[in-house]
Write a structure and sequence with these properties.
Blueprint: H1 2-18, H2 21-25, H3 27-32, H4 40-65, H5 70-78, H6 80-112, H7 117-132, H8 136-162, H9 169-172, H10 179-206, H11 211-237, H12 249-254, H13 259-291, H14 296-310, H15 315-339, E1 349-353, E2 358-362
Antiparallel strand pairs: 1-2
């Protein structure tokens, strides 16, 4: 039973890390899949297979080499110098993304819940701080709540779409986009999201003693991501091309299903921002603790302070310059992950951190330059 629970926690954390606010609004799915018409069904299946294969492979490698942070993992893939530089650039991107997500959480509180913008930021930061004190256990528990809710909403949207006149349109939808662009999209989408998710998935793997649970969780998580991609594409295809005019295409669908579904949807957008924000802060904090000569207890509060300050300014324009560069880097990163051999299983002892309820494996890291 404990093994099955751990598998579900890993799967939910994987799904919750990939499925952020861009996914929930529908913009990511519309841009990477739905606009390619009848190709989208096949490319979603390809993306799901890549999430199953590469996400699981990344976590297994991270566990076997004893990587504490994504910098350790990148050093393993690229070598000491290149891996360190790539991790530093990833750090900048993650801090920028977190700042924008924090600003988005403040906007949701202001526009939909009637709170002042600054109050929304402070509520999000306070909740994040106390949850992060629980470490990886807190992240897994949060996703164990949020992800089933997301899956339930996906099912509601699917059942509602079945009754619409254009329900079968996802099979025959025409597109002017090239087939080359359609088949490149799942690779770019998977690469970008896994490049961002490594900040969470690497520490998650390090704190999982049972490799079989890790593998099963990775497979189940990839299937869950694919299901949610397909559910959103199915719903939005039935509304094409009119849905292209909406900034929040999935919101236009959810709002038609009544006030209860609308409230659940708004709550989900916030929870997805909240869970991704917490997960990224945790991953970045782990890396910064390796780099900065300050007390580990100060790293997370200082990082959250930086995100709060950046959320006050137009940081999104600067991130708009960095995003394409990170996207290209993510493709290279995934190419290296594809080529990376699986390290042999670690020779070590397993034990349990009773205080946190997390299985830990004592292994000798094989990362170059670390003792």
């Amino acid at each position: 039973m404990k093994s099955h629970v751990r598998t579900l926690q890993i799967a939910f954390t994987y799904i919750g890390t990939i499925v952020g606010a861009g996914f929930a609004t529908g913009q990511e799915i519309l841009r990477f899949f739905t606009r390619y018409g009848h190709w989208a069904l096949l490319t979603i299946m390809l993306s799901s297979l890549l999430f199953i294969w590469l996400g699981t492979k990344m976590m297994v490698i991270a566990r076997r080499i004893g990587a504490d942070s994504y910098e350790d993992f990148n050093r393993h893939l690229f070598g000491e110098k290149a891996g360190s530089r790539i991790s530093l650039f990833t750090l900048v991107i993650l801090i920028g993304v977190n700042s924008i997500m924090l600003a988005g959480a403040g906007a949701i509180f202001q526009e939909h819940f009637g709170f002042p913008y600054q109050a929304g930021l402070l509520i999000t930061l306070t909740g994040s701080f106390f949850l992060l004190k629980r470490g990886m256990s807190g992240i897994m528990q949060l996703n164990s709540l949020v992800v089933p809710l997301m899956l339930t909403l996906s099912l509601i949207i699917i059942f509602n779409t079945f009754g619409l006149p254009g329900a079968e349109r996802f099979l025959f939808l025409q597109t002017d986009s090239s087939s080359f662009g359609a088949w490149m999209s799942p690779l770019l989408y998977t690469a970008f999201n896994l490049g961002m998710a490594q900040a969470v998935l690497v520490p998650l793997a390090r704190h999982t003693g049972d490799e079989q649970s890790l593998v099963r969780g990775g497979i189940l998580g990839g299937i869950g991501i694919g299901f949610m991609l397909l559910a959103a594409h199915f719903a939005m295809s039935s509304q094409m091309p009119g849905i292209l005019q909406y900034e929040v295409p999935m919101g236009s669908i959810a709002f038609r299903l009544g006030s209860a579904v609308q409230l659940i949807y708004l709550l989900l957008i916030f929870l997805e921002i909240f869970s991704t924000f917490i997960a990224n802060i945790y991953g970045v904090s782990v890396q910064l603790q390796q780099r900065l000569p300050i007390a580990p207890a100060l790293v997370t509060p200082l990082l959250m302070l930086f995100c709060y300050l950046f959320s006050q300014f137009g940081f999104s324009s600067l991130l708009g310059v960095f995003y394409p560069i990170f996207g290209a880097l993510a493709v290279v990163w995934v190419s290296m992950l594809l080529r990376a051999p699986l390290s042999p299983p670690p020779q070590g002892t397993e034990g349990k951190d009773k205080a946190k309820g997390i299985t830990i494996v004592a292994v000798k890291p094989v990362i170059r330059g670390r003792k």
